[in-house]
Amino acid sequence: MNSSRFETLKRSAALFSVAFGLVLSSPAEAKLKEGEDFPVIKVSQFAGKPKVDMAKKLKGKVVIVDFWASWCEPCKLELPALEKLHKKYKGKLTIIGVNVDDDVNSAKGFLKDHPVSFDLVYDKGQKIAGEIGIEKMPTSFILSNGKIVKVHEAFRAGDEKKIDAEVKKILTGG
Q1: H or E, element range at 99
Q2: Is there a catalytic annotation at residue 60?
Q3: CB count in 10 Å sphere of residue 101
């Protein structure tokens, strides 16, 4: 999927809501914000990976939910950084990678060069990304007990230090 597909999805949702008189929030309004509860999302199993029960994963834990795609250049930096955090905070931090590719085989190819051991799920048809207003790749949500503590959009070199500091702060009760 590319960024133009996200734009097409947003326009289609807006046209649908106008045509049928529905009151739907715009993507900017639907965007999840810090302090809000993160929704229990329904995602598909990522082929070849264990099934992930999102409700159980989010409850009472520190979690990073990361939306990524194989065509996303910053994801090439971000996924290895998240893998390091996963290993550093093993047992204390849960990371769930949500792939939004049109074809899960593209994601599998990407993961051959950028392997991860944290949980992976598949957002078939980008339904969840569209519903919660994901506009940039990658987008990560740092959660504590199901509440959004921090939202990171895009990823640049050095962001891994910010994310690490935020996770450490939550884990130490700061």
Answers
A1: strand 93-99
A2: no
A3: 21
pLDDT above 50 for 57: yes
Q: Enter the pTM of the model.
A: 0.81
Retrieve residue 130's tokens. Answer: 């569209």
Residue 40 pairs in a beta bridge with: none
Which residues does 66 contact at the CB level (< 8 Å), separation at least 6? 78, 79, 82, 95, 96, 97, 98, 138, 139, 140, 141
Question: Tell me: the pLDDT tens digits for 80-121?
Answer: 999 999 999 999 999 999 999 999 999 999 999 999 999 999
The verdict on whether 37 is a catalytic residue reads no
- DSSP-assigned beta bridge partners for residue 143: 63, 148
Q: Cβ(9)–Cβ(126) under 8 Å?
A: yes
52/42 Cα distance (integer angstroms): 10
Range ranked top by mean pLDDT from 17-21, 44-48, 129-133: 129-133
Domains by residue range for the chain, with CATH:
3-171 (3.40.30.10)
- Which position among 1, 43, 54, 75 bears the catalytic label? 75
Sheet with 93-99, edge to edge strand ranges = 44-45, 119-122, 93-99, 62-68, 139-144, 147-153
- Which of 54, 64, 69, 72 is the catalytic position? 72
